[in-house]
Amino acid sequence: MKRILLMVFRNFIYVPFMWCKLCYHASHVDKYTEEQHYKMLKFIVLHANKGGNVTIDVHGQENIPKENGFMFFPNHQGLYDVLAIMEACPIPFSVVAKKEIKDIQFLKQVIACLRGYLLDRENVRQAMKVIADVTNEVKKGRNYLIFAEGTRSKNGNEVQDFKGGSFKAATKAKCPIVPVALIDSFKPFDTNTISPVTVQVHFLEPLLYEDYKDMKTSEIAQIVKNRIKKAIERNEKKYG
Q: Taking the complete model, does pTM exceed 0.85, yes or no?
């Protein structure tokens, strides 16, 4: 909370205008292209990060597929995760998030602008529809992000088990799967400090359909988790 207040305070000139613009975009999603939404969101995120003493250290942008229609699978550390990846990623993507986001101001507007889906994990029928819709959109060239752990870690940079079912949309769309390792992404919003923090975003080598077509989703989940875990272990101590 302290860091959010700092972000607002140091951007007080922009806040009223950008809040109104964000809400307008969120309420008029079809009026703007995906690129226009994304450009507006990145402007907000860049100013918020600068004001909030947050630096994004990006690695592996060359691993982001050149053609659209892929899916990011990062580890899930906190409420800040999507914003970190948004600054790090130069091209638009959307998000599948849990339904609880709809009650969090700012984040719910961001999800709306990204034309994301809110998943009710207790509603199997709704979850299956989301998977089908995401599959079709990825086939048409949209990019998506899913947190395969299901819920954010409560233990810092420790990676939880990845759920195989989270990969169904990717396997049905036969798209590249891009593991993303987040390091210290829990610190900006999930710790009570305003000290400068560096969040690392590592885009890892993607799994192509040819790599995983004969695998079960549980096997894919384990491979993605292991790659992310190893990347964290290699880089966690970089900033002490």
A: yes
